[in-house]
Design brief:
The protein has 4 helices and 2 strands; from the N terminus they run αββααα. It has about 110 residues and is mainly α. The protein has one domain. The longest helix has 16 residues.
Length: about 110
Amino acid sequence: MNKQKVYNTVKKHLLKQNEISMVKGVCLYRGPNGLKCALGIFIPDNKYHRYLEGISATALIDDGMFKLPGNSKSISDSDLNLLNLLQGVHDTFRPPKWKEELRRVAEIFHLKP
């Protein structure tokens, strides 16, 4: 997995969308009006189904549901940590804080913000 490409893709998506993919306080990989969370953007349309909501990203990665830039069959703990932190930016913070929180994630992983 190429961490910089994953980070860049998520950052571009979240800052452009500027809205949380959420229904009734629950974050969704795919929400109403075409909204997608930080990791929902990596689920190909032909693999997405509503039943995926509520399943952990780790389980979906293990099942090959995500198409990540530079994806290989094995994803390290560090890769999972990056994905979890990026998902956390979407799920935990309001859009006005996303840029700051994404910068923090970049610093943790020594990525170019």
